[in-house]
């Protein structure tokens, strides 16, 4: 697995939380992609990597699906809620 060599971008605010939640739950990126696709969000590995690195804008409908796939609230992804 390659580690990100560049600092995070500024295109979204959920990327770092997506990575943290995904890793804390032991979900590999491929498994997460499969979950997203099962929920109707067709996203490539490159797009997910760019989203997680905060180099890609995120659409509102994507935030909803990502939250559902990670079993967290949209508010948490957006930084409005703390971990319970």
Automatic annotation (TrEMBL):
Domain of life of the native organism: Bacteria
Domain HTH cro/C1-type: 41-77
CDD domains: HTH_XRE
Molecular-function annotations in GO: DNA binding
InterPro entries: Cro/C1-type_HTH, Lambda_DNA-bd_dom_sf
Record-given protein name: HTH cro/C1-type domain-containing protein
Organism for this UniProt entry: Paenibacillus polysaccharolyticus
């Amino acid at each position: 697995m390659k580690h990100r060599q560049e600092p995070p971008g500024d295109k979204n605010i959920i990327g770092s939380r997506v990575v943290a939640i995904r890793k804390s739950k032991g979900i590999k990126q491929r498994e997460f992609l499969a979950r997203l696709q099962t929920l109707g969000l067709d996203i490539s590995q490159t797009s997910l990597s760019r989203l997680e690195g905060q180099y890609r804008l995120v659409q509102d409908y994507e935030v909803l699906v990502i939250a559902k796939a990670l079993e967290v609230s949209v508010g948490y992804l957006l930084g409005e809620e703390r971990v319970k």
